[in-house]
Amino acid sequence: MSDHRKVRNAKPHQAPADTAQRGAPRGGAPLPPAPQSDDTRLAIEIRGLVEAGAMDEARERFTDLVAMHQRRAVRIAFQYLREAAEADEAVQDAFVKVFTHIASYREAWPFEVWFTRILINGCLDRRKSRARRERWFVAADEHGQESATESTGGRSGPNPEERLLARERRGKLAAAIDRLDGRQRTVFMLCHYGDCSPREVSAMTGLNESTVRVHLFRAVRKLRGFLGGKP
Amino acid sequence: MILHSGHLKDDHLFECYLAARTGEELDPRAAEHLADCGECVDRYDEVVAFMNTTRQEADAETDTEFTAERLLVQQQQILRRLEHVHRSARVITFPGRDTLSGSRSAGRLTPRWLAAAAAAGLFIGVAVGGYFAPERFHRSVAQVVADRPMAVQQRPAAPAAVRVNAAQEDPPDDDAFLIELELALARPHTRELQSFDAMTPHVRDVNNQER
Q1: pLDDT at residue B149, as a whole number
Q2: What ipTM was reported for this prediction?
Q3: Which residues of A touch B62 (CB under 8 A)?
Q4: Interaxial angle between packed helices A84-100 and A55-81, expressed in degrees from 0 to 180 and rounded to the nearest 10
Q5: Strand positions, DSSP E, A25-153
Q6: Pair type for strands B3-4 and B7-8
Q7: What is the rounded average pLDDT for all residues in chain A?
Q8: Own/partner pairs, B32-40, CB within 8 angstroms, 24+ separation
Q9: Is the Cα torsion angle B41, B44, B48, B54 positive or negative in sign?
Q10: What's the gap in Å between the CA of B69 and the closest CA on chain A?
Q11: Which of A47, A139, A145, B55 is deepest in the core (most CB within 10 A)?
Q12: How far is CA B79 from the centre of its chain?
């Protein structure tokens, strides 16, 4: 299979412990010792509070962590799942899981890597279960869904024609991304929408960094081909 | 070999884009070539434009779906869910075993005795009834069925026109058959109860006799 298995095999809450013992996940180059980022420091602080039993304070501090990563998490989940409600749930689940397993977080890897790994695993699970559901039930009417969100959104800005064109473009892009090989899709999502560097993606997926770069290049080339541009 | 027919290869162009985005150091040879070659710069710009467009589209789409209010609601939902984390589940205690077993024995024994007494009473009643009126007890179901047409004949006479029509449409055999059928449906289907049914006077027979 694809990157799915790679990401899945490494349990999110175990990953940092593993990496602390072995230096790096299989295939992934260890990140050079870098000054801890704000979110990593905060995660360590929250871990300390949870271990000390100061749950209320830990929850309060966790709010800042949520605020730091929420937008990016939503973008990744939404691009992955293409359904707002499901992306919303996936993001919530990821944050709750992070808090539940914060005691197993090790600072050997940046918090962002750990969190993204948990999020992607959740998204992959949801995609899988959705595919299973769609085998048995009729798929929801996408057109109806879109018109429903538009009617409730009351969006201002571009005129209806521009909105329609934008929707078409996004639909095409989403379909093109969906046509990518699973591994290429994950690498593209993480690098492009998740703002991760190839090295970070390597740490998340367990792929070699050069392999990540190759997948990313191939994904972009394919996408340009699918979308009518120069492959 | 990063040059292909005097120009940068596609993958090297993409590496340049990645390096610029992530702040990595650019390959000096590629940087040098890009500074001189207009065609490669155009190709590089195409790559950058494509990547930027897809990113902007994704951002715009996400922003449309996830407004600031929605993100705030999501944050609150996350916090609500976190309130239950690391908190042990509440266990509702049920009444102790002793109280349960006591009430169970009291609650079950009474109906058992009642059921046994009712069965014994029924048996004695049937036996006494059979002893004092054996001829009624042994009267067959066939006799009862044979008696029924008499009751039917005692019905008030219908108007002449109706009677003629009825005679034309329902021959006497059919009528008897229907009555028999009705009786068969009305009487109990359990064989053990048929003898009880035979010795019990029916409301409709009494009514017919009164008329």
Answers
A1: 52
A2: 0.71
A3: 74-75, 78-79
A4: 150
A5: none
A6: antiparallel
A7: 77
A8: B33/B2, B33/B3, B33/B7, B33/B8, B34/B8, B37/B6, B37/B7, B37/B8, B39/B7, B40/B7, B40/B8, B40/B13
A9: positive
A10: 11
A11: A47
A12: 35
Q: Is A216 on the interface with B (CB under 8 A)?
A: yes
With tokens 């150091």, the residue in question is B25
Place of tokens 């070539």: B33
> Is the Cβ of A84 closer than 8 Å to some Cβ of chain B?
yes
State the burial class of residue A22 (Cβ atoms within 10 Å of its Cβ: 0-12, 13-18, 19+). Answer: exposed
The two three-digit tokens of residue A212, written as one number:
């990540």
Q: Do A169 and B57 touch (CB under 8 A)?
A: yes
d(CA B31, CA B51): 20
In this structure, of A21-30, A92-101, B23-32, B121-130, the range with the lowest mean pLDDT score is A21-30
Mean pLDDT of B66-78: 92
Q: Is B47 on the interface with A (CB under 8 A)?
A: yes
Residue with tokens 């090989």: A181
Does the beta carbon of B177 lie under 8 angstroms from any beta carbon of chain A? no
Nearest CA-CA distance, residue B92 and chain A, Å: 24
Tokens of residue A32, six digits: 């050079």
Q: CA A23, CA A109: separation in Å to the nearest integer?
A: 10
The DSSP symbol for B88 reads: P
Task: Name residue B88's amino acid.
Answer: S
Q: Which of B63, B76, B84, B86 to mutate to test the interface with A (most CBs of A within 10 A)?
A: B86
- Interchain pair B57, A166: CB under 8 A: yes
Give pLDDT, residue B195: 78
Q: Which of A98-102, A184-188, B97-101 has the lowest mean pLDDT?
A: B97-101
Who contacts B15 (Cβ-Cβ below 8 Å, separation ≥6)? A213, A217, B27, B30
